[in-house]
Design goal:
Elements: H1 3-15, E1 23-27, H2 31-37, H3 42-63, E2 67-74, H4 82-105, E3 108-113, H5 121-134, E4 140-148, H6 150-163, H7 171-175, E5 188-191, E6 210-213, H8 223-235
Parallel strand pairs: 1-2, 1-5, 2-4, 3-4, 5-6
Helix pairs in contact: 1-8, 2-3, 3-4, 4-5
This protein binds farnesyl diphosphate (FPP).
């Protein structure tokens, strides 16, 4: 990472803490293309993607960002070839069992977001263990969105509200039915690989998020790219529908 840019970012952070996002969410796109360009199986792109995720978490901790979310597997990803889905599930199993203790030692709370009950039973067990083991940690919350879809989350929330006979919903009470109601909305959503869409990610939570799209493929995403996104974010003016200075 360039020393000047690092310094600029750090002093910006110290001068104006509001220029730093509290919650950064990632749409990790481009693993398949990264692998195909190297004539490798797509699942090797996902493996490299998991390394990029680890780099992003390390940098996020270093920067003191309290919440990081990653869109790891969508409700639509089941439609991919069986070999790729199996490869991804294997990677989740392996990463969960290899990394949970290290995350716990780093003070990181691990949480999962999505229709977890529809994942393979052993992955559900590992998820439950990892969430339990790290539940009291508060250095950072690391949120992995698995079998997640924004529309599905909204439908699940409406179903829970109905089941509770809720009659007058407002934004605050509705939030209670989301998968992780206590997690603040993302301030910044970063999508890699040049695609410019949300693809059913955090539809409720993204209402006022700043969106940042970059051409780099997810396995190549590094600290420099993270810094670029944070710098761009710090220059945005967030108005939440009000006029400037209001
Ligand atoms: C999108 O790239 C990426 C995914 C569908 C999977 C992302 C998963 C990881 C990075 C692994 C994370 C690991 C853990 C343990 C959470 P793509 O396949 O759509 O790429 P393409 O658009 O180039 O085809």
């Amino acid at each position: 990472m360039g020393k000047t840019r690092e310094k600029e970012l750090m002093s910006r952070g110290k001068r104006n803490n509001s220029g730093k996002p509290r919650h950064v969410a990632f749409i990790m796109d481009g693993n398949g293309r990264w692998a195909e360009r190297r004539h490798l199986p797509r699942v090797l792109g996902h493996r490299e993607g998991a390394k990029a995720l680890e780099r992003a978490v390390r940098f996020g901790v270093q920067e003191g960002i309290p919440y990081l979310s990653f869109f790891a597997f969508s409700t639509e990803n089941w439609r991919r070839p069986a070999e790729e889905v199996e490869g991804l599930m294997k990677l989740f199993r392996q990463t969960l069992s290899d990394k949970t203790v290290e995350l716990a030692e780093q003070g990181i709370r691990l949480r999962f977001c999505g229709r977890i009950g529809d994942l393979p039973a052993d992955i559900q067990e590992n998820i439950e263990k990892a969430e339990k083991m790290t539940s009291s940690l508060d250095r950072m919350q690391l949120i992995i969105c698995m079998n997640y879809g924004g529309r599905q989350e909204l439908l699940d929330a409406v179903a829970k509200a109905f089941a509770n006979d809720v009659s007058d919903l407002d934004e605050r009470s509705f939030r209670e039915y989301l998968y992780l109601p206590d997690v603040p909305d993302p301030d910044l959503i970063i999508r890699t690989s040049g695609e410019m869409r949300l693809s059913n990610f955090f539809l409720w939570q993204a209402s006022y998020a700043e969106l940042y799209f970059m051409d780099v493929l997810w396995p190549d995403f590094d600290e420099k790219d993270f810094i670029d996104a944070l710098m761009a974010y710090s220059k945005r003016k967030r108005r939440y529908g009000a006029t400037e200075g209001f």
